[in-house]
Amino acid sequence: MTAAAVRFLAGRVTLGLLALVVSALPAAPQAATPAVDSPARPALVVILVVDQFRGDYVDKYGHQWRHGLRRLFDEGAYYTEAAYRYASTTTCAGHATIGTGATPQTHGMISNAWFDRALGRDVACTEDPSITNVSYGTTPARTGDSSIRLATPTLADEMRAQLGVAPQVVTMSIKARAALSLAGHRSALSTWFDGPRGFVTSPAMGGPGRVPFLERYVAAHPVEADVEAVWERSLPPTSYLYEDLGVGETGFGAAFPHRLTAPPVDGQVDPSFYGTWQMSPFADAYLGRMAAAAVADLKLGQGQGTDFLAVSFSALDTVGHAYGPRSHEVQDILVRLDETIGTLLAELDRQVGRDRYAIALTSDHGVGPIPQQMQALGLGGGVVDRKTVSTVLTAALGGSVLDSNTGSEIYLSRDAAAKLAALDQHEWDAVRTSLEQVDGIARAWRTTDLLAGRYEAASDPMAHAARLSAYGGRSGDITFITDPYWFPYRIAATHGTPYSYDQHVPLVFAGPQFRRGRYTATASPADVAPTLGRLLGVILPAADGATRVDALSRPPGLAAADEPPQTQEGRQASTSP
Ligand SMILES: [Zn+2]
């Protein structure tokens, strides 16, 4: 980066703040934004999320990758120890953290769903009953989704607010909670896959109209073209770790090859296809091609400002839930995603220019192993018996435990909740001890105690992680953490704990603004939004994450002549060989 480029970058900070002030004044002229004239300010920022990409997969399976994942880990600034700090390591919480730089206690997306006392039922984190989504498939949408429950702005939101030239914001995923939480509150295009309804958009994001690009793309590329596809391993079977037929695996067919569904009869696609397709590498490949087409069609990164693209690849998660982290299926999804991301990066190089975009790669959470496999190894594991939990709590508090499928949160009837609130610390300790004697429950807290900061001073990482996940009015009356390798409900494999298999994920920044290397510093996916924002002079008022200044090619705001000399010790402190 030249000295002029660094001054240009520093100037962007002032311009960004100016834009904030200017946008508050009616009829004021927009702040002028210089044209892109150096690699200091990217023309496009890209966030790639690989759903359920566990940190150790890079070490265990990375030797199988040759394309896009290989390039990012080799050429980027790779934080080997990145991890979430909070307990509820779920998809909605993770994507909201990546998008906003905040933790659930701030952004409010505590989980994929929580119990809504006013409605008397669970609500999905993106559910919006005031609208109906727009379907691009053959069946009309019946439900609505938006970011009404996202309590903080995303990086993309702040780019819209602070940059002189409004960015085009484009996000896509198989899941609504990924596409919406990465975008925030408005976008040119946020789309996700809704089964037989095909790809859908939300009228809350860009208005009630149809997005012409998406209309054309899905018409020209129907997902049903994959209906007779067969998923076979792409490498020789001996290249995969562990066995194909693992104990406790579910999914569609235990072993390779996997046929998505029965062949169509009279042109009618079997409805099961829309479920299995999402659990296959063909969904990721489709998303990668659609992202490249969107970049071309909407000319992302080719205007006067900086555009925003986020893609969340979901197949690793759906496959990981069914086949577990030790499966050939998980390894093969990554081998194929490596190719999909390689193709997408090649398209970005061609369309935007290799030095004209900055990219972050990370994940929303990891995953725990299938409990039966851990039991077979003599390492314990299991599923918490919710009936026993209910029996313990109703014996202590009366009332009832409400019917909710929200993981480690426990919601009580009003009379039981009132009694819980009235317990003094000694009485609560007795209830807590009974709960912690239930098989698979490690720790339990009253949410009111967490929110009141009762555990803030204690040196208690588990309580701190639970506190970072708690949000008033959404969290349960009681929240618990399972023992390692235990799940709070029955499923082949899942996530949602503060253990390293759920919290540790890869984090990579790449582009000319970053110094390649392996960084062993403490880091988190909450650092993605503040770090990319820093490249643009965009500030995030509610971020809990840090700006990764250790990975920037040059310290921001300093001309080259002012840069402090980099000592050899300094380099060793921030990078490992
Ligand atoms: Zn996820």
Automatic annotation (TrEMBL):
For this UniProt entry, the molecular function terms from Gene Ontology, in alphabetical order, are: alkaline phosphatase activity; metal ion binding
Map out region (Disordered) in residue numbers. 550-577
What is the enzyme's main class?
hydrolase
Q: Which gene encodes it?
A: phoK_2
Matches recorded under Pfam families: Phosphodiest
Could you tell me the EC number(s) of this protein?
A: 3.1.3.1
Catalytic residues (UniProt) = T91
Q: Could you tell me what this protein is called? A: Alkaline phosphatase
**Cleaved signal peptide residues:** 1-31
Q: Where is the composition biased (Polar residues)?
A: 565-577
- Keywords recorded for this protein, A-Z: Hydrolase, Metal-binding, Phosphoprotein, Signal
Binding-site list for substrate? N112, K175, A176, R177
Top-rank lineage group of the source organism: Bacteria
